[in-house]
User: Fold Proteasome subunit beta from Frankliniella occidentalis.
Amino acid sequence: MECLLGLACKDFAIIAADQTNAHSIIVMNNEENKLFKISNHMAMGITGESGDTTQFAEFIAKNIQLYKMRHGYELSPSAAANFTRKTLAQHLRSSTPYMVNMLLGGYDTNSKESGLYFIDYLGSFQKVPFATHGYGGFFCMGIMDRFHREDMTVDEAYDVLRKCVTEIHKRLIVNLPNFKVQVIDKNGIRDLEPLTAKKLQAPQ
Assistant:
């Protein structure tokens, strides 16, 4: 029932994640943070089993930082995504699989390019211009396909996500009122204004 949304453009990647923490039919929290800082220029949106998400995201982040300490430079987003996929695939074939789905967004300071990587709990992996996870994504792929452009500005990409979240609030039976949004570019990672039901339903 959780939802991740992501777009990659020429100079940045932007990721939105719902903030609902639910157990069975009970909503525990509407302010859960599902976006994790992996390095100075990489962030990961992650959904799945509650314990697995935090543990796996922190495991990846700490190993990438360890690599930087040992070698003196950070992994590129592409290398980090491949390492993440390999780790997930290895655990899938062990007695301790992680049931998590991810969107990893980053900016490569060497090539000056951004990237968005789709990874699911089965170890599927693909670099994509836009992607979703969860039921909410069923209503968003058409919107992203219609409006995504490689030369978009941050404001334009944010507006596409706003259209997606509005459609989720309108059509999805599950209540996902709050979405946290982060953009990753050459300046690092920064939060944008959250997309909330209260804000989107307010008269313009």
